[in-house]
Structure formats: structure tokens, C-alpha cells
Amino acid sequence: MTVSLHTSILGIDFENPFLLASAPPTSLIESIDVAFQMGWAGAVLKTITPDDLKMIEASPRYAVLEDKKRIIGFQNIELLSHKTVKYWCDGIKYLKQKYPTKVIIASIMAPVNKNAWQDLVKTLNDTPADAFELNFSCPHGMPEKGIGMAIGTDAEISSTITKWVKEVSQKPVFVKLSPNVSDITSIVRAVEQAKADGFAAINTVQGFMGLDLKTLKPLLNVNGKTTFGGCSGIMVRPIGLRCVAQIRQASALPILGQGGISTWEDAVQYICVGSDAVQICTEVMLNGYKVIGPMLKGLKNYLEEKGFSDINALKNKAVEVLTSHKDLLKTPLEYPKINHEKCGRCGKCVTICMESEHQALQLNDGNIVVDKNHCAGCGLCRFVCPTGAILKE
Ligand SMILES: Cc1cc2nc3c(=O)[nH]c(=O)nc-3n(C[C@H](O)[C@H](O)[C@H](O)COP(=O)(O)O)c2cc1C
Hints:
This protein has 13 helices and 20 strands. By secondary structure, the chain is of the alpha/beta class. It has 2 domains: 315 residues, TIM Barrel (Alpha-Beta Barrel), CATH 3.20.20; 62 residues, Alpha-Beta Plaits, CATH 3.30.70.20. The strands form 6 sheets. Strands 3-4-7-8-9-10-15-16 form an 8-stranded parallel β-barrel, surrounded by 7 helices. A 4-stranded antiparallel β-sheet has the order 5-6-14-11, with no helix packed on it. Helix 3 packs across helix 5, helix 5 packs parallel to helix 6 and helix 6 crosses helix 7. The longest helix is centred in the last third of the chain and has 15 residues. The radius of gyration is 24 Å and the shape is globular. The protein starts with 6 loop residues before the first strand and ends with a strand. Bound molecules: flavin mononucleotide.
């Protein structure tokens, strides 16, 4: 079977579904040039703002969450692009001339002012960028000026700005949504009514990495003070998957899914919740543009193994199985089955089961025994067993 990674969204051709997200890896034209040579299908440019929007960055900008010395997430407090609009206009023209088949999406943000948004759009209309992405969703940049997440958490303002942009845009418009809302679908509906063409999600999740317990200073320490920032990377993936699934449940428009993609498998998960293509930032910041190689290879092999000719066969697979808790068929119970050869007799499962309500496991004559009268079939014991000796019955 011939497998193709090609995909088409709103009439735009993508060589493959992997885009660089708007972030430090898309902050410089010459770096994007390198990324395109390495196989990325496209780039969402670091968010472009009107030249008169003043921004002062903090130093440092990152704190990290580690698990056994592996970074599984960032908290960042970076703001937007510091390059001029002209830099981006010239750069887009240069990149498109050199790479006509690559997709370039101009991420934009401006204060809540019709002229500011429309002037930016009109200027970028004259470039060969394929689409716009409206950044309504940066959690730390800069709510005091009424922008970023201050827009994306308010359905009315999101709708108003989308309308302003659509009045003048000559390109498709994706709205980049914030996960920092209690009901993402209310924003989805508002911007869809305002004629948005698609969505990008998620931007970073607002969070706080805490203090260094030795010094009691913030882990993200800016002269002794800190602030809430945007969390990204592996640690936010379940939030991203949930948000994209909810967007897909509420709308049929295209979605550029993102948030914690570090492998091709993660990308597949995003496609299964309804993404038409994916974007990646943190993984590239940690391991470089070269991560695209294994992602392309892994996705292609997977499609081949599954007998799928392209990613369309995967789209919405997870959405099809999502329902409400009340509609889950709750029986029969899934009892644990002990592999006595693998069991290390440590008793951890017995302790955890007892201390987490059910008291269904006992160590009898050196063997773990399941009392089905007490077992709720919750499955916790399978995950805490250090030797993998507990299976489903
Ligand atoms: C340091 C940093 C800077 C970012 N800057 C922007 C930005 O300028 N515009 C934007 O829309 N998103 C920005 N993002 C958010 C990313 O594009 C992406 O939505 C988010 O990090 C989740 O994806 P990831 O887990 O692959 O990083 C930034 C993220 C990070 C970590």
C-alpha cells in the first residue's frame, strides 16, 4: 500500500501534518529556512504585533518540570516577536520564494482596537503567507494591555476581533484558543459565528512551577519575584487532547492540534481527537528541528502497518468513542488477575488497595489473592505493581 502523509486543509496543501508552532523555533527567518530543509511541512510564525506595541522581556523566562532528569514541561513567561512587521513581510516573501510548497501561517496579535488589528492584517495580506492565526491565548502576554488570554477567555471580545479580521483578511483565519477557560466550546461557537475558518489549540496552560525549596526563591526567579506563566510540553498533553476533542465535538472546522507532542504517537493521538494537522513547540526547543525525522518515519510506518493510505482514516477515532460518564456501560467489572511468577510479593498492591478504599487484595501464604466481593474493578492495582504482575482477568 502506498502511504501519503500529504494533507489538505482549507485548500492549503501540507506535505505532511507537522508544523512548527508559533514560538522561539519560528522567531527567525534563517532558522525557519533550516527547519524547512529538515522536513517540516510549515511554520506558524512567532506572533507578530504592531510595531508600536512595546514589550519588555523578563530574564530568565523558563522554569522546568523534570521526571527522572527528563524535562516534561516548561513554565515560560516569554512575550511575542520583537521583529518588525517589515521583517516578517520580507521574510515570508523570501521563504515562500525558496520553498513554494511549505505552509506559512502568520500568527498575529494586537490591542483590542479595530484599526490595530485590521492594519496588521492588511499589511500581511500582501505577503504570500497561506493563512492567519489569531493569538487570543497567551496567558502572560499582556493582559494589562487587554491582549492574549484576556481576549481568548471572553467570547464577546473573541468574536468581535474575529469579525474585524474577517472583514479585511484575504486568507483563511485560524483562531488559537486558550485552555484556560471553563468552557472552551463557548469560545468555539462565538468565533465560528464570527466566521473563523478554523482553530489552533492549545496555547499554554497557565501554571506556576513553585519555589526552590533550598532557597525558598521562585524556580522562575526574576530578581526575587515571579509570576504565573504558560505551561507546555508533555505535562499538558492530556489537557490539549481534551480541549481539541471538545472543539471537534462542537465544530466541524479544521483544527491545528498542539500541546505536549513529543513523538509521532502523540501526533496520532491529536489526529484521533479531531486535528487536521499538528503543531509542535516544546519538543523542538528541547531537542531541535531534527525531531521531525523520526516523527515522519514513525507516522508513515504506523499508517503502513494499519493499512491506512493517509491520516484521514485516523481522524476523529477518539471522538467516536467519547461519551458522558452517565452513558458508559458500567458492567461487567474488570477484575485483576495475578501472574504469580512475575509477582515480587512486595505487598504494595495490598497496601494501596486497602488505603484507597476497596480492601480486595490480600497476601495469603505468599500469594496475592483477589476477593471479588470487595473488588470494585477500578484497575489501580495494575498501575502500582512494580513488576507488571497484575493483568486484566
Ligand atoms: C517559550 C514559548 C513561547 C511561545 N510563544 C508563543 C507565541 O508567540 N505565540 C503563540 O501563539 N504561542 C506561543 N507559544 C505557545 C506554543 O505555540 C504552543 O501553543 C504551546 O507551547 C503548546 O505546545 P507544545 O507543548 O508543543 O509546546 C509559546 C510557547 C513557549 C514554550
